[in-house]
Design brief:
By secondary structure, the protein is α+β, with helices and mostly antiparallel strands. It is 46% helix and 19% strand. The strands form five sheets. A six-stranded mixed β-sheet has the order 15-14-11-18-16-17, with helices on both faces. A four-stranded antiparallel β-sheet has the order 4-5-3-6, with helices on both faces. It has a four-stranded parallel β-sheet with strand order 8-7-9-10. About 7% of the residues have low confidence.
């Protein structure tokens, strides 16, 4: 469908641009993955860029959905875009793209205007390129940083204040710089490719051109734009926008979000710079995304703990014959069946992991995107996968992920679990040796037979099915609906449990959040033992899971 050109850069233009960028990266993802040799030949730059932009799109859409009347301001939209990209940034390339978007947002959100013209876009592109370069510990030319700087230079040299003309100039400048990257980096020249991160940025800028002109930007060659490698040469890993590790480089990629003050982050940069390479720290206003390649992953995480509160920690091992190695590797044999589950806290992630499931951690207010679920399905490396979203709001996201995985030849069954306790019940009856259909039916039946509830604290005043609640009230939700409003966590939990057991049950599952009262589990276990004969209780620690307590009754 043809896009309606946007004359000015306003909130709608931000929304359109993000959507088009996601589509463009989706089309180019596999091609970009295939030419990814720098910093390490791990073949995931296209996927990482796609997941980063997908998170930005979700954040922008959430802002538009929140407006019943009218539309968000430009500042609302660009801040959401930048925040979404920051919390969803994946890999070195995704982290740098997040900083580019943040740099643009800093300019576009300034002044509180409803829209900006080409002059504002020109300044935003310049600020983006400069801030991304500052975020990288040891910038190297021939990377996405070079492409971003060229785009900003070309936009700065363009005349007039038309957004379409500025965007087109930036795109053409970036495209020319991308074509020159093999002459700037020996690793690219040996492999016969352009920079993968730069290729992704050109796709994003092409989407910006389409946003303002309604015309699709020229297709940027990827594999066909390769320079001819010397005989015998192949992909060689080095170091994205940092001094490259090369073959035999650091063993781990460590990424985490970090809540910390500016001064602590400055000290963290120095600490991590001494531990490894490919260091990129982006963000601000108390929230940062940290990326580094190290040999001692534990030390990198401990440095984050000293600086503030790290979370969403992802550690990837560059194993033998993998990212930092140029030799061929023997493909790992696929297992027959696996379970992939979304879980709300570290404790449940450990529990599900012990049961053999591949987990995706969902932080409060930060649901995973479909791309993250697809990556988890791929990581499970199975011919058949049972997918447990464990959240009613993730139904459509999980369905989209399942469809994409099926298109890749993986047999996927989606069980519509609405809570982690339903997932626990399904996992308890999972038998990989059974026929796939029989296993799915058994797991679905177990999940459906489990009523679920949670106890949480209201964040603001609102209408509920049980009446009006005030901020700070304790809410008891049964099967997704507010059933009890009270002031005491234990009292509300007991009332909820009594209502659930009134219709019978054989097993009560309690999952405690970090902020739940220390005595609540013992109190509820005593209540079940004294009031309900032949009903067993199991207790798990969920960690930082959002809700104070999850309850399941089978």
């Amino acid at each position: 469908m043809a896009q309606v050109p946007q004359t000015f850069f306003d909130a709608l233009a931000v929304r359109t641009w993000c959507g088009l960028a996601l589509e463009s990266l989706g089309r180019a993802r596999e091609e970009i993955d295939a030419i990814n040799v720098y910093p390490v030949a791990d073949g995931d730059t296209g996927t990482n860029l796609y997941l980063t932009v997908e998170s930005a799109v979700a954040a922008v859409e959430a802002v538009f959905t929140a407006y019943d009347v009218g539309k968000p301001t430009l500042a609302d939209a660009v801040r959401a875009m930048a925040h979404g990209a920051l919390i969803g940034a994946r890999g070195n390339s995704g982290t740098i793209l997040a900083q580019l978007l943040r740099g643009m947002a800093q300019v576009l959100a300034d002044g509180g205007t409803a829209h900006t013209d080409g002059a504002g876009l020109r300044l935003a592109l310049r600020t983006a390129a400069d801030s991304a370069r500052q975020a990288v510990a040891h910038p190297v030319e021939g990377t996405v940083l070079t492409v971003a700087s060229a785009a900003a230079d070309a936009a700065g040299a363009a005349t007039g204040d038309d957004c379409g003309a500025i965007a087109r100039a930036a795109f053409e400048g970036a495209r020319a710089a991308l074509a020159a990257t093999p002459g700037q980096l020996a690793a690219l020249e040996r492999a016969g490719v352009v920079d993968a991160g730069g290729r992704g940025l050109v796709a994003v800028l092409g989407a910006l051109v389409e946003t303002f002109t309604g015309e699709a930007a020229p297709v940027v060659p990827g594999a066909s734009a390769r320079v001819r490698p010397a005989p015998g040469d192949g992909p060689v890993g080095a170091g994205d926008c940092a001094d490259g590790p090369g073959e035999g480089g650091p063993a781990f990629e460590v990424i985490y979000l970090l809540e910390a003050e500016d001064a602590a982050v400055a000290r963290l940069r120095d600490r991590l710079d001494g531990l490894g390479d490919s260091l990129v720290v982006v963000g601000g206003d108390g929230l940062w995304n940290v990326h580094v390649h190290v040999d001692d992953a534990g030390a990198a995480v401990e440095a984050g703990v000293e600086a503030g509160r790290p979370y969403r920690i992802r550690i990837t091992h560059f194993g033998a014959g993998d990212a930092h190695s140029t030799g061929e590797r023997t493909p790992r044999e696929r297992v027959q069946r696996a379970v992939v589950a979304v879980v709300p806290g570290e404790g449940l992630a450990g529990l599900y992991g012990e049961a053999g499931a591949t987990t995706v951690l969902a932080r409060p207010g930060e649901p995973p995107a479909s791309g993250e679920l697809v990556e988890a399905v791929r990581r499970a490396h199975a011919r058949e996968v049972v997918l447990l979203p464990n959240d009613a709001d993730l139904r459509h996201t999980a369905a989209a992920a399942a469809e994409q995985a099926r298109a890749e030849g993986i047999r996927v069954a989606l069980i519509p679990t609405r809570s982690a306790v339903q997932g626990i019940a399904a996992l308890a009856v999972h038998e990989p040796e059974r026929r796939f259909d029989e296993d799915v039916v058994s797991m679905t039946s177990a999940a459906g037979a489990t009523r679920h509830a949670e106890v949480a604290v209201a964040e603001h005043r609102s209408w509920t099915s049980a009446g009006i609640c005030q901020a700070g009230d304790v809410l008891g939700l049964i099967d997704g609906d507010v059933a009890v409003i009270g002031a005491d966590v234990t009292a509300v939990a007991e009332t909820v449990l009594d209502r659930m057991l009134a219709s019978g049950g054989e097993l009560v599952t309690l999952v405690l959040g970090d902020e739940a009262p220390g005595t609540i589990a013992e109190h509820l276990e005593d209540r079940v033992r004294e009031a309900y004969l032949a009903v067993d209780t199991v207790v798990y620690r969920g960690g930082r899971q959002g809700a104070l307590l999850l309850i399941g009754v089978e």
